[in-house]
Amino acid sequence: MSIITKRSTISVSTKSTLQNAIDKKYATIFVEGSLADKVKTAYALKTVGTVAISVLSVTLVGATAVSPFTGGLSYVALVPVSVATGVSIPVLIAVTFIGFSLIMAICNHYDLVEVGYAKLKLTLKKN
User: Could you tell me the residue ranges of all domains in the chain?
Assistant: First the structure.
């Protein structure tokens, strides 16, 4: 079950359906399964300063760009970045899986509430 839509609420369990729900600005998004765990972990970026966010975005883009040529070893560069920015390795792994821009959209436009085991509720912030 990937998408269940009813008015302004949607349930998602894949990255692509989450991206679609964010793009369409659903008022409430329920994230389920392993994706919920990754979103919860990556949501920790919300507490990181703007300089650290800039460093992380440049490093993630660079590591991802050269990853096909290095067999993924370019992600080793994330270790010193993790130390320098104070962002944990699990957070960086979750951000790499979900995508930096998607996580930033969630952090900037949604409040996160944990509603159960492997289930999150994202609520669109009111402007």
Answer: 3-124
